[in-house]
Structures are given as structure tokens and as C-alpha cells.
Design a protein that fits this description.
Helix content: 25-40%
Radius of gyration: 14 Å
Largest sheet: 6 strands, antiparallel
CATH topology: HIT family, subunit A
CATH superfamily: HIT-like
Number of strands: 8
Strand order of the largest sheet: 2-3-4-7-6-8
Order of helices and strands: EHEEEEHEEHEH
Distance between the termini: 15 Å
CATH class: Alpha Beta
Number of domains: 1
CATH architecture: 2-Layer Sandwich
Shape: globular
Number of helices: 4
Strand content: 15-25%
């Protein structure tokens, strides 16, 4: 299944966070995922949901990973709700497409409110972005093709 490493990568910042090697504040976690604030927020609320296992990117996902992506979205929704985001219709959930990932480790962006994101943030996370793919598109491609294209 793509590029995966349960032990992580020594030089991967998200693996370091997952292994408690940094002072990053973990907002939510379970045995498979963890969530923390994005250090360069693109919206008032901008969180990252990261896999504990090192998975290179959304391009490494396969059809069997649909439940994983759904759990990532669920954790994103939970953190938004915990932070009093009341309109869950005004959110963006998605991934950066390689080679436009700043960190080569699968991470879901959960942003809200999407309607007030700046022009620059819209370029990075908006519907017209060439390097950001929404969760809906990822799930659709996984269901249809068994991979993200």
C-alpha cells in the first residue's frame, strides 16, 4: 500500500510530532491519528489531522484506505466542533497534491470558516486550487479508481 512506514521517518516533522519528539500541542489523538493546529493558518480555524503511520501523501492512498480518510474527516469535524465552529457547511477538508505538499506525510487540512478565507488562502485551499484536492474528490477517486489521480 503505497509508501508507508509504521516506525516513521527520522527527518519527517509529522512523524516527530506523532512520536512526541516536539512541543507541538496535540489537540486530539487516538491510536491511528492525531490533530494539531497548522503553524501557518489559512483560516480562523486551521487544523491538521495526521496519520501516526508515515504515509507519503494522498497519492499513496488506495481503495482500502477509504475508512482511514473517513476517520480523518471525523477527527477534523470533532476538533472544529470543540472549537465552537457552528456552521459545518462552511468548512474545507482536503489534502495538498504532490509535489505541492510542504511536508511529505499524509495530512488532512480542516479549515473554517471557508467563506472568510483570504485571497491567498483561497489560492492554497480553495475550489480553484490546482494543488489542493477536497476529501470528496479523494473519496470519489478511491471508490472509482482505487487510487488518487
Amino acid at each position: 500500500m503505497g509508501n508507508r512506514d509504521a516506525s516513521g521517518s527520522e527527518d519527517c516533522p509529522f512523524c516527530q510530532i506523532a512520536q512526541s519528539q516536539t512541543d507541538t500541542e496535540i489537540l486530539l489523538s487516538d491510536e491511528e491519528l492525531l490533530c494539531f493546529r497548522d503553524i501557518k493558518p489559512g483560516a480562523t480555524h486551521h487544523y491538521l489531522v495526521v496519520t501516526r503511520t508515515h504515509i507519503e501523501s494522498c497519492k499513496s492512498l488506495q481503495g482500502g484506505d477509504i475508512p482511514l480518510v473517513e476517520r480523518m474527516v471525523e477527527m477534523g469535524r470533532i476538533i472544529l466542533e470543540k472549537n465552537k465552529v457552528s456552521n459545518l457547511d462552511d468548512v474545507r477538508f482536503g489534502f495538498h497534491m504532490p509535489p505541492f505538499s510542504s511536508v511529505p506525510h499524509l495530512h488532512l487540512h480542516a479549515l473554517a470558516p471557508a467563506s472568510t478565507m483570504s485571497f491567498k488562502s483561497q489560492l492554497h485551499y480553495g475550489p480553484q486550487s490546482h494543488w489542493f484536492i477536497t476529501v470528496d474528490k479523494v473519496l470519489s477517486q478511491l471508490k472509482t479508481h482505487g487510487k488518487v489521480r
